[in-house]
Amino acid sequence: MYTTDQYEGMAAETIAVPGDGGDYIYAYYARPTGAGPFPSVLLFHHMPGWDEWYKEATRKFAHHGYAALTPNLYHRAGHGTPEDVAAKVRGDGGVPDDQVVGDARGCIDFLRAQPTSNGKVGLWGTCSGGRHAYLVACRLGNADAVVDLWGGNVVVENESDLTPQRPVAPVEYTKDLNCPLLGLFGEEDRSPSPQQVAVHEEELKKHGKDYEFHMYAGAGHGFFYHDRPAAYRAEQAVDGWQKVFDFFGRHLGRQA
Predict the structure, then answer these.
(1) pLDDT band per the 50, 70, 90 thresholds, residue 256
(2) Residue 34, by phi and psi: left (phi above 0), alpha (psi -120 to 50) or beta?
(3) Under DSSP, is residue 238 helix (H, G, I), strand (E, B) or coil?
(4) CA 121, CA 251: separation in Å to the nearest integer?
């Protein structure tokens, strides 16, 4: 809860962190100033790339008391505008899942190693980043909470949708999930569709996982994106952000 006499300070900068195979990749790091200890959040950017919206979201988490890091998962594809780099990555079939998992491992290790860390790390992502957050939570097993916002292709309906870069649907790893999950989705989305979300939920129930899903009426894909007027839904986005901060507050050690 905010009070008008509290001190607020933030540091935000581009850094390089060790990722998959020992490669150093760029990451945007925002955190509160002060001694802490602070919980951490690792943000997985969406298919449009490592863009301004994601850096703004990273600072939003820092404003709420989290050390937040969003790595450039497209770093190895070269540099340019986010749109140009994302187009190249899409043309190459996306980034390999194994590489994303390796990059995430390095980022989580970095966050936990900071002297102001309280030792807890949450994962968060939208669109393809929601898929990556869930995939990493299941495969690494070292996160304290995970938030999947409309992650497409967690459930794959056709074998032909699997690729060398994405050989296994993340839902197949559900049995290995060992932390609480929050999922936010739109009824008008097609990837994931409400039917795909239902399949994912059944798998979570089958394995007795700790999760909560919320399906928003009147919302489609990307309803948090205020920079995309056709997708943005203010009422649903405000409620969704409240659910995100309540969830992380309960599981990472800070009430926002």
Answers:
(1) very low
(2) left
(3) helix
(4) 9
